[in-house]
Design goal:
The protein is an all-beta fold. Helices cover 0% and strands 53% of the residues.
Length: 123
């Protein structure tokens, strides 16, 4: 069992920055890759940034590559998503997610989801 609790999010103007954090806990949490998914109204949930369980390999969606950075802390109990140069198209609900084993950054492989946090980017 893995528990994921997101924090951060909110309203920001286009061009601004925002950080999200995901607190990770659970007896077997080290066996899971952690990532961030985004869902805009009327669209499917999309993997945008994922970090392999070894902490070295990262996957980014093309839409966020170069602007977003995923990382984890030294205690391996929190994963952050730093979002820079935000665009109105980045608006949506952001979910922290856990995939058992290696990261594929695809919703079909996610075993656990956080509750989600809203990010709104105004133009």
């Amino acid at each position: 069992q893995v528990q994921l609790v997101e924090s951060g999010g909110g309203l920001v103007q286009a061009g601004g920055s925002l950080g999200l954090s995901c607190a990770v806990s659970g007896a077997s949490a080290e066996a899971y890759s952690i990532g961030w998914f985004r869902q805009a109204p009327g669209t499917e949930r999309e993997g945008i940034a994922c970090l392999d369980r070894d902490g070295f390999r990262t996957l980014y969606a093309r839409s966020v590559s170069g602007r977003f950075t995923i990382s984890r802390n030294a205690n391996n109990n929190a994963v952050t998503l730093q979002m820079n140069n935000l665009e109105p198209e980045d608006t949506g609900v952001y979910y922290c997610a856990a995939e058992k084993g290696n990261a594929y950054c695809q919703a079909q492989w996610v075993n656990y989801w956080g509750q989600g946090t809203q990010v709104t980017v105004s133009s």
